[in-house]
Each structure stands twice: as structure tokens, then as C-alpha cells.
Amino acid sequence: MTTALVTGAGRGMGLEFTRQLLSRGHTVFATARDPSRSGALGELAAEHEGRLHSVPLDVSDLESIAAARRAIGERTGHLDLLVNNAGINSRGVPEGQGNVRFGALEPAGVLRMVEVNAMGPVLITQGFVDLLQKGKEPRVISVSSWLGSIGAKTSGGNYGYCASKATLNMLARAMAFDLLPLGIISVVFNPGWVSTDMGGPKAKLTPEESVAGMLKVTDGLTPQHAGQFLQWDGSEHPW
User: What is the distance between the alpha carbons of residues 60 and 100, in angstroms, rounded to a whole number?
Assistant: First the structure.
């Protein structure tokens, strides 16, 4: 039985990761800034009594990460899977902090996105690496975006989000080579254009399809995959 930690689990992709991992019979630590605000997590907890544990966590706050590590460490001595899913788009940045359009950019808006989307996964992994080392064939997967691909960028705009995901790709690639000697395989995923609150209603891929694909690929990861940028279906994505 796998013990997993999922960030940003209150809705969208994180909630779907949680749902599918529970359906596999796994134990899941589902984190969000305020898990009590997610009725869906409460419903899952009732359906899977004893296997779903909701934990408050702000991925950009070191004290919050340390508190979550203590809370989770009281319930388990290992983690087999870490899903770095939490992230924000431009709507998650305070009003007035320009991060989208050239001519209206300023540092705080862009840096806030980098703080959450890029540094957050690294800080979470760093904070829980001791539990991962004790896991069975431990894996770390970080949810990136095709918008983080420098080679695929062919238009202007969306500076903050694109920069944050490109930064995540580099940080996660470097981290993968530090984790590999510890027995931990780490990759980043492009989940595809998914019909969530962030992806919007025009997206063709459902959260169920995307998450099922990423978990299937994760099951088959080998050390040779460490540091790769993968599509949700397992094919490689261009950097």
C-alpha cells in the first residue's frame, strides 16, 4: 500500500489525484491552505475513513511546511509518493501586481508566481525528503505546464505564469539529480490542457484522464526517467 502526499488537494487536479490514489487503496495526506473549505475532501474522508488525512499547508511558507511535516510525521514514518500539484495562475496574485502584460509588469507579481509555482515544490520536497527516503520505490512528480516550455513559446504575454513554470522545470531537473542517489525518482509533468477552474471550460482533457495517465506513467518510472519533462501520456515534452 502506497502512502502519498498531495499538495493543492482541495480542488481541481489535486483533488482528482487524491480521489484516484484513494481508489487504489492508498493512504493519502491531502494538503491545502485551508482543507476545511473543501467539501469534496470532507466527502472523500467519509468514504475512505482512516486513509485520508487533511493537513493545512501553504507551500510558500517555511513555517507552514515545517508544521505539516510534524503533523504528517506523527502519522507515518515514510512516504512513497509526493505529488507537487499546488500552484496559482494570474488570478492568485494580489490585484495591482502586474504579471501578465508587457508594459504593466512589476516584480512582486511575477516573483509571487515563481515563489508558489517553482520554489514551492522544491521546498516541499526538501522538507519531506527524509520520509521519502524511507518509502518503497519513492517517486516525486511535479505538475508543470506546456506553458513552461521555452521552445514552445511563440507569443507574448502571460509572463509570470510562463516564467514560473519554466523555473519549476529547471529547479525540478536539478533536484532530480540530487534525489536520484537517495533512491528517489523525480520528474515533471505537463498535465495537458485540462478542464479545471484554472484550465477553463474549453479544455478537451478531463482531470480524470490526465491524472490517470500521469499515475500510470509514474508506476513505470525508472532511474533513467529522472529529471525528464513528460507529457501526461508518458511521451517526452520539449523543454
Answer: 21
